[in-house]
Amino acid sequence: MREDLLTGIAEIADFCGFDEAKTARLHRQKLLPTFTRARTIYALRSQIRAAWRNEPAS
User: Fold this and answer.
1) In the Cβ-directed half-sphere of 53, how many Cα atoms lie within 13 Å?
2) Could you give phi then psi for residue 53, rounded to 5 degrees?
3) Residue 16 pLDDT > 90
4) 30-52 burial, b if ≥16 CB within 10 A, otherwise e?
5) pLDDT of residue 24
6) What are φ and ψ of residue 29, in 5° steps?
7) Torsion-angle region of residue 8: left (phi > 0), alpha (psi -120 to 50) or beta?
8) Integer Cα distance of 20 and 39 in angstroms
9) Is 34 helix (H, G, I), strand (E, B) or coil?
10) pLDDT digit string (tens) for 19-57?
């Protein structure tokens, strides 16, 4: 799972191919499968890929 984890808006944005402002906006609007722990935003690569394919994450 460690290699699946993206930490922070910058890393998530880089993976998605978006700029940081757009990624932060998508996070706030709950349009990206992200979660927050201790004021840090995280995402899982597998969940983002599944969301783009409109499939449930495994």
Assistant:
1) 10
2) -95, 0
3) yes
4) eebbbeeeeeebebbeebbeeee
5) 96
6) -85, 0
7) left
8) 16
9) strand
10) 999 999 999 999 999 999 999 999 999 999 998 887 666
pTM for the predicted model, two decimal places? 0.85
- The distance of Cα 43 from the centroid of its chain, to the nearest Å, equals 4
CB 44 within 8 A of CB 4: yes
Q: Do the strands 34-37 and 40-44 form a parallel or antiparallel pair, or are they unpaired?
A: antiparallel
C-alpha to C-alpha distance for 25 and 56, rounded to whole angstroms? 23
Between the alpha carbon of residue 31 and those of residues 1, 3, 9, 10, the distances in Å are 22, 23, 14, 17
Q: Give residue 1's Cα distance to chain centre.
A: 14
pLDDT of residue 55: 62
Contact 18, 26 (CB under 8 A): yes
